[in-house]
Design a protein that fits this description.
alpha/beta; Oxidized Rhodanese, domain 1; Sulfite Reductase Hemoprotein, domain 2; 6 domains; six-stranded mixed beta sheet; five-stranded parallel beta sheet; 32 strands; 4Fe-4S
Length: 794
Amino acid sequence: MVSPSWLEAHRESDSVVAVDVRERRDYEELGHLPGAVSVPGDRFRDPSSVAAGKLPAADDFASLLAEAGIDPDDTLVAYGGDPALAARFLVTALVYGHEGSLYLLDGGLEAWRDGDDRSLTTDVPDREPTDYEAALCEDAPLVDREDVEDAVEGDAVLVDTRTTAEYEQSRIPGAVHLDWEALLEDGRLKPEADLEALLAERGIEPDERILLYCNTARRLSHTFVVLRHLGYEDVAFYEGSLTDWVRTEAPEWDPVELQAQVRYYADNGGFEAMVDELGEDVLGRLKLIGLYHQKQRGYFMLRTRAPGGRLTAEQARTIGEVADEFATAPAEYGGPDQNPVFGDGYLDVTTRQDVQMHWIEIEDIAEIWDRYDAVGLSTMQACGNSVRNVVGCPAAGLDPDETVDIEPVVERVSQRFLGDHHYANLPRKFKVSVTGCHEDCARSGIQDLGLTPARKDGKDGFVARVGGGLSDGPRVASDIDLFVEPDQVDDLVAAMADLFMDHGSYLDTAVNRLRFLVAEFGPERFREELESYADFEFVEPDETLTMDYRGDHVGVHEGADGRSYVGLNVPTGRMGGDEFAELAELADDLGDGEVRLTPNQNVLVPHLADDELEALLEEPLLERYSPDPGPFTRGIVTCTGREFCNYGIIETKNRAIRWARELDDWAEQVGIADDHEAIRIHMSGCSASCAQPQLGDFGLRGEVYRDDYESGRAADLGLGGDLGNDEFIDWLVGKIPIDDVPDVVKATMCAYDADSEPEESFTEWTDRTSNAALREIVTEGPARDSPAIGTEVT
């Protein structure tokens, strides 16, 4: 480590080279230290890689340094906005045999700029390329798996440099924790005496052999640099797979054992006793059994699985009764009036055909599970890093164009992994969908494994798509040209889960979704690897049968048996528990005793003869949950939001239902309501994708807005998602003040209405319109002459 003053005193030397590891654009446009060369971090560390942060090829690294005009014996001083990334550059140079001294600029760019006479420049130094060569040193401080096993037995001090939350969730046995940022204060290294005390506290002494590991090698590298700076001579690091330690068979990760523990504490001290005796980290493990600790301490969100979205009327009635009785807020959080729109005792239908309810207490969970057991319901592995609820076509068995009966397939997959300890702690959640009709309504494009109809040698089955997903780094699933017979599907899921466990990233939370593994391998290699795990021969389909994409099932539809099924719109997916139970009664009395849940947070009642159909349509319940809603109410999809979620930045449910109703009134008034079946607004309360914002006509994700005068809630906005054409939205504008969003929607819809061609969809129009023009509409375009949202519309 060197100070800015040291660098200022030495930078005129030809052999001292400052290395800027920021993005090349920042180096060029924002300025850099005088004389500094650019070696961007994304050139020697690929953040999209499953092996994020691991060493680049020696020849690639040598080319980077040669291009920057660096000689093998130059003294290098690395800096950037991220000190850990600058440290990673130095460690990479050390491992590949750089002969000169290697230093990290303490405090980085900000520390340099703190000097009165120190400035930045945009002038690029004129350095001639060199003949730099790199090769892995024999004495490089890299260790292998055997060294780690020896360290576990006491041969060295194992140091985990991840965050506290990551360390508590999973770690190598015996490892001590040292968050790399604990070594810094205001971006600079803490005083040496403070560091020595901090390290001694953890048993990290200079005369010990120290072995570091992490989930991102840049953070590990920073700790390595600091320890070497403090005089620690025997420091090494491990960059291999830690899967075998993280995916343990320990009983605390067994969902069956967890369920037994919760049942015990339900009758013996409740929440506080459970946390006191099992530790705070038990709250993360409870996701495996469907319990998600909400932001209000001591209360849980309970998620109930509905494989393929199917519930018997008896099951639906039980869920509604449980919500009505137990999903109730305590007095300190508002009691019966805790939510001004939905009141109390409500539940949420999710985009994965689950049911969620809030305010559940440990003391009540045993009784809830008993009621569930009596009707064949389960919450096990509805959350957590396991094979999640299998999504299926909501109209399975009802659609005249259906090729494959998916009900036995969904049931077989669901039962195979339910409570299986081996598959209960995957690197990340594993999402599967199965569609038997020709409209891909289970959304194969955004699943880890999506199956749609196909045919081979006259047999009906499925073709597999892999590696889809949203959130950061969204990716459309790849077709791997694999035909799967219906009775092979559960074996394929198991093979894919085994591959994921062996090759997926357990520790790097930024890239531990299966889609990153597919992207790194490429579809062809992934197919080859997957075949080595499967116990059946891989063959290609003769033809694929998916012809279209279906966004929702709202409305009255004729079924294959001549009877009708009705899709009811449930705006934002939220219903009262008593209403859900009432719907179950109607399905029992008028249909065949079945309720279906859809990926659009709606519900469906099947098997209705003509008289029963008319009777259902006349029910008062359908005035609120209509099969013929306005376009905005039909298209609204939201996540849980700030109301309960620890990550939520904006409130979603109440706001969205208010917007949808008022926008429908506006659409009627300006005469565009009949022109649009559904206008899809998908709103997530944070940067995650629980509401699938990438799929909406309008995609929103919660943000915080700040300017020179005030701050408030806001949303990033994107336009033009269309999963039917494998298109995600383009994020166009960031941090729109949340109260301005409805007017932005109005302005955009007016521009589309005025400018679009006949039969041109909203997505086609956004594709045709430049991003600059769309941004102008969003930020400046006036809506039609009409009342603003939030004012009374008569």
